[in-house]
Amino acid sequence: MNDDIPALPEGYECSTDPARIDVERVHRWLSTDAYWALDRPREKFEDVIAHSLNFGVYDAASGEQVAYARVVTDQGLFAWLCDVYVDRSVRGTGIGTAMVREARDHLGALGVRRILLATSDAHGVYQKIGFRPLDKPDQWMALHFA
Q1: Tell me, what DSSP letter sits at residue 71?
Q2: In the prediction, which pLDDT does 111 show?
Q3: Residue 59: which domain range?
Q4: Number of domains in the chain
Q5: Percentage of the chain with pLDDT > 70?
Q6: Which residues contact 117 (CB under 8 A, 6 or more apart)?
């Protein structure tokens, strides 16, 4: 695993406190600007927050949320990293990579042995943190509801 990933830039902090999430802002990001969550209903988003481990990155001075990631996990062996989003105003600063590293390290400390994710366009970002393509993708299956 790559431990050379920088920490969050100075002036930013990461938190798993769901009470800090700016639900309106994160829902707007995801439902209008994230290809995987376009038009996601607000009520559904509030529900998934309540049943997930949430990571937020905040400007330490203003408290404004600048990034978000959600993890569906049993907090013991398995996790699925999803809904990773960085506000356009701070992209390219390392905040997203550092946030995912924080999530990886948090889950690793819990004993989680496998973290999965799906991405169409950010493979390089996740590879920096240690993610690799599935060794045996033919062993994995999915069930999709219409």
Answers
A1: E
A2: 96
A3: 12-139
A4: 1
A5: 98
A6: 80, 81, 82, 84, 126, 131
Mean model confidence pLDDT for the chain: 94
Q: Distance between CA 33 and CA 47 in Å, rounded? A: 20
The CATH number for 30's domain is 3.40.630.30
132 within a domain of the structure (yes/no): yes
Please report, for residues 102, 105, 106, 112, 113, the alpha-carbon distance to residue 109 in angstroms, rounded to integers and kept in the order given.
11, 6, 5, 7, 10
CA distances, 89 to each of 63, 110, 122, 141 (Å): 15, 32, 18, 37
Strand blocks (E) in 1-133: 12-15, 53-59, 65-73, 78-86, 114-116
DSSP annotation of 87 reads -
Q: Which tens digits make up the pLDDT trace of 12-65?
A: 999 999 999 999 999 999 999 999 999 999 999 999 999 999 999 999 999 999
pTM above 0.85? yes
